[in-house]
Structures are given as structure tokens and as C-alpha cells.
Give the backbone structure.
Amino acid sequence: MWTRRIRCSAVAIMTVFTVVGCGGAAGHHGHGGGHGHGHGGHGDQGFKSPEEWAQRFDDPARAEWQKPEAVVRHLELSSNSTVAEIGAGTGYWVVRIAPEVPVGKVYAVDIEPSMVEYTTKRAATLGFKNVEGVVGAPDDPKLPAAVDVLLLVDTYHHIADRTAYFQRLRAKIAAGGRLVIVDYKVDPAIPGPPQEMRLTPDAVVGELEDAGFHLKTRSEGALPRQYILIFTAG
Ligand SMILES: C[S@@+](CC[C@H](N)C(=O)[O-])C[C@H]1O[C@@H](n2cnc3c(N)ncnc32)[C@H](O)[C@@H]1O
């Protein structure tokens, strides 16, 4: 049950979304760990309160449709892999990936400093020493080093000028590395971001091929709400 405070906070978030014209219907945002949009022109204004977003992103009910173990298996990690999640939010994925790469590294990248702070504290509290927070810019994740796996979950569609962005990012993927995109299917029956913000897998593949990536694996059946696309950078 939501407390009164959380309920009020959620209403405040909805109000912000309505004002910035990025949706706001309960069906778009009240979907247990799924999503939120406050991004006027892709400069996200709506992810400034990690404690409130954690109610949604880290809702235990998310596991039912998010199937985090299955997603992490798709990453094909080794104990020494270096991983970056762009748009790490409250660290839902970071705390699941960190124990899989005990002698590797996880960069938790977000354009929202409060999200980065929240995730790095969360990882430290759990005892993970291999997590580093990175405050990115909307057009540059500012990765300190090349990575084996670059992951974006429910974040790809927030990025502006994607072809140019990912063209630049290719240099930050180590030899043999992969780019993994998990994002919402275009289907009004599937809760999540507003339909007009979603991208079909074909659209994502087209953009990333234009940026120089090659599709390796395409999965539209592993998860009920999202597709998983895996690319190589070579
Ligand atoms: C819907 S949340 C997803 C959070 C997390 N990936 C998850 O699955 O729980 C999207 C996140 O992407 C961040 N974001 C939006 N645009 C970004 C950009 N250009 N670079 C990095 N992060 C971005 C937002 O601040 C937000 O924390």
C-alpha cells in the first residue's frame, strides 16, 4: 500500500509530466517499475527525485515482467567484464550486474546527478566496490574508459540525435564488445511510456546500423513488454 506521502509525491510527478506535455496518463506512468517521462526535448526534467522514482523502478512487482535474470544472461558477462549502463536511474541493473563482474567494473551513467549519487550509495551499501558513478551529458555519457558491454534499458528513446551519439560511442566499446538495447514494444496494450515515444525494433536497428553497429541478436519474445537488441560495434 502506498503511504499518503508517496501517493502525494506520485501525484506531483504526474502533474509535472502533464505540464511539460510528456504524457501523464496513469496508464503511461503507473506501471510498477516501468518508466517515466519528463523529457521536454530529451533534456530530462523528470528524473530528479530518485527516492520517488525508486518506488516505481525498484518495485518488486517489476521482476514479473522485467525478468532481470534473463536480461542479465543476455549480457554474457565474464567475471572481469567492464559494463556501462547509460541511464542507470536508481541502479536497478547496476546492483544486479555488479556481483556478476567481481573483478570487472560497472559504470553507472546518468545525466541526473541525484540518480548517480543514489545508485553509487546503493551499491556501496551493498558492499560493491566495482561500481563507479558517472554524470553524463545529454550528448555524451563521458565514459572514462572503453567497455565490453554498453547497456541501455528504457533509455534509448530518451536520447536525442541518436545516430551521432552512438557513432561517437563506438570508440568506447572494446574489441569484441556489445551494445545492448532493451526498450518498450510499440503496443498500446503494453503499459509503459507513451506510444508516440516508443521505437520499433526496426527503427532502432536502422538508426544503429547508420551509426556503424551490426545487429547480432534480436529478441522480441524473451520479455513480455520489451525487446532486446544486441549489436557489435565492428
Ligand atoms: C526510465 S529511466 C530507466 C532507469 C533504469 N535503466 C531502469 O531500467 O530502471 C531513464 C533514465 O535515463 C536517464 N537519461 C535520460 N537521458 C539520458 C542521457 N542522454 N544520458 C544518460 N542518461 C539519460 C534519466 O535521467 C533516467 O534516470
Remarks:
- The first helix runs from residue 4 to 20.
- Residues 83 and 146 are 9 Å apart (CA to CA).
- The chain has two domains: 4-56, 64-232.
